[in-house]
Amino acid sequence: MRLLRIVPDDTKFDFMRFRRISFPISAMLSIAAIALYFFHGLNFGIDFIGGTLIEVQTKAGPADLGRMRSTIGSLQLGDFQLQQFGAPNDVLIRISQQPGGDEAQQAAVQKVRTALGDEVEYRRVEVVGPSVSTELLAYGTIGLVLAIVAILIYLWFRFEWQFALGAMIANVHDIVLTVGFMSLTRVDFDLTSIAALLTILGYSLNDTVVIYDRIREMLRRYKRMSMPELLNASVNATLSRSIVTHVTVAMSLLALLLFGGQAIHSFTATMMFGVVLVGTYTSVFIASPILIYLGVGRGRSGGADEPEAPPSAPAAASASAARPTSPPRARVRR
Amino acid sequence: MLFFTRWKAAAILLTALVVCLCAVPNFFSEDVIRHWPSWAQRHIVLGLDLQGGSHLLLEVDSAAVRKEQLQAINDDVLRVLRQARIPFTGRAIRGNGVEVRITRDTDLETALAKLRELSQPLSGFAGSTGQRTITVNESGGVITLIPTDPAITERVRQAVDQSIQIIERRVNELGLVEPTIQREGTDRILVQVPGLQDPSRLKEILGKTAKLDFRMVDVSMTPEQAEQSRPADSEILPGERGEKYLIEKRVLVSGADLVDAQPGFDQRTNEPVVNFRFNSAGARKFAEVTQANVGKPFAIILDNKVISAPVIREPILGGSGQISGNFTVQSANDLAILLRAGALPAPLTVIEERTVGPGLGQDSINAGERAAYVGATLVLIFMLATYGLFGVFANIAVAINVAMIFGVLSLLGATLTLPGIAGIVLTVGIAVDSNVLIYERIREEVRAGRSAINAIDAGFSRALATILDSNITTFIAAAVLFYIGTGPVRGFAVTLGIGIITTLFTAFTLTRLIVAYWVRMWRPRVVPI
Q: What is the ipTM of this complex?
């Protein structure tokens, strides 16, 4: 049975060569993303700036946004937004935080309910007062920072410091670009977005760790190979796995994006960007070459290594592993 | 790596089976499950975003609790000093404490000693914490009493506990199904009512403190005159329609003495009214007041608003009466509920509200299911196409993995939200990764020249360390998310976290087990990968 092979065996792409291009590009993109954050801003949801969110479904046909806008406008509730949300008779109403603390928010909801009356069905009402929203914003930011620090410590523990630093730089870069993406597309930035960012962080690290693991193994095995060559070999070796995994994750996310409904749309779109596009790129083109700049494997002459026995099993070899008897580098006919 | 003793294999299969069986109660409706033994009844709870309902976060007004505490200390100081017959002046609440000036310096020592008795030791979990409730200081003949911070926190905590009980009573009276009422943090209460569409009535009922007082109307002057002269013993309170009343400050009978309240209709006018009944102490006080004040108006005050001010026509000795005013049938019923449940110790404010209608809830479930089926199918087909027979093994492992996730969720009685379903779909992607790592490694070992069995063995041993590392990083992210998240986001963190644990379990055991048995049975020369 001919099996699907997206990546041919023994690929030998020279990924490291691109580092002279990829680093500047990433730097530029990161700066662009940060600029977007400050000048274009994020579309903060009510979770973080307080306010009211009402999702209504008009009972009789598509919603007349213009009329609803003027009805709500006449209530004098300050800034508000009306937009279609999925189906033509689904409307999302966002009212900014009312001055006067938590009671004022409640009063505003009542006013809207009375004004819109019976012609709509209330699918969802969310009111977040000022005290809760400031807390959620604080927790969200603290959470992100905490996760980055915790993972940094864990990686330091498992690998050397250069690996931990490299991974952190690569993944902070991931988050920065994703935030830029969110700013550009004006998706709602609320608690679920923080969830998406944290998941992207975890996932992208997943990837980076797999490559780092291979790099570490190769560093032990090939004492003389130059860094660019070694890194290339590592990435090429893990390429097949990376592609397959990314395809499966992309398929899961695609299913969520297409069928998961409007409620988690912003979440899945963000995840798709972060995990599939950025995550892959950074693991290969940033996280690996950065090790060169961080000084891993200095002093490698780039000479050829002694021909070695096939990869030996690690110290904890199971008793049933037989000694390899075939000569090294023999190819197995299939 | 491929060697499993019979015991080990049995243990693994048994664990997987038991955990999967835990998911079974979810397939049966509530009525069927009710008859099963209690340990078999645990099932997943649908979050509010999937079943529809209201989520209200209420905050206890700590400032009001503090004020009442100071008021109580103020009254206590008066009582203690009067009893000890110590003259004093300038007793007042100033800032965050109560101040009183002792007239005679000779009395200072005794006054201090007596007032110090008001402070009580605070007890923690293991007996006394050594802290007291009030700090009593003296300087220049003026004694200040300030409640300590632990005392205030304790009072707020008590207020929250009391409020929870009263909320439970009020919510039960409204006939709402299975509400969840629990404390959150130091001064907040979470109320979740599945199925509730319009929480307006609930919010109204919870928003009223419902403190009922009976006091005499001060007829010595008009309210306008009182505004000028500001008499010490009376205050101006508004009525239902904004009119002003001058009411004596002294509370004659309070709502705490009510034993029952029922909505009804006035015999003559057929207007909705609330009929109430006092306990014996309250009935006695009520009888005294009405006997002494026939012909004078008295006021019924709810939350500092006068709702009724009838003239006492005759002494009421039976301890029951009627409140009539501008009531509708609904508002009379609501007031009766509030009076029966009791007054809240402090006002509650709604600081967060999330209500999901049943339409959206059902749509979310459908969307979640659809996405899950489509995603799973795509992944399964892809694995089959890429790895053939081993793809089948991976698919079996992933299927058991998902069943185990549901099993663990059921065991914990955890809440499933829409992001939670997304978490499960994502876990399918992650779970496949562990298998991919193993299989790619096996392929490599085969290319490097190992025999079939050795390649498989080496593939597993090398890959498992990497699997552990990479999954732990995602787990850390999920753990952080669990702590900072609320509601639906927390549901996502839970399913992601549980998914990673079950993935590690299946990767380390089930996949290996399946492959090990296949190797043992078929003794392959070539790895079909």
A: 0.76
Residue in A with minimal Cα distance to B496: A199
- pLDDT tens string B227-281: 777 777 778 888 877 788 888 877 788 887 888 888 888 888 888 888 888 888 8
C-alpha span between A108 and B146 (Å, rounded) = 39
Secondary structure of residue B215 in the 3-state scheme: strand
Contacts of A191 (CB under 8 A, 6+ apart): A45, A47, A136, A140, B485, B486, B488, B489
CB crowding A53-80: b at 16 or more within 10 Å, else e: bbbbbbeeeebeeeebeeebeeeebeeb
Interface contact flag, B448 A260, Cβ < 8 Å: no
- DSSP-assigned letters across all residues of A131-152: HHHHHHHHHHHHHHHHHHHHHH
Contact A251 B432 (CB under 8 A): no
* Pick from B1, B440, B484: CB nearest A140: B484
pTM: 0.76
Using alpha carbons, list the distances in angstroms from residue B30 to B10, B36, B41, B178.
33, 10, 9, 13
- Measured CA distances, A76 to A79, A113, B260, B353, B520 (Å): 9, 14, 43, 22, 76
Q: Is the dihedral of CA B458, B459, B460, B461 positive or negative?
A: positive
B359·A248 Cβ contact <8 A: no
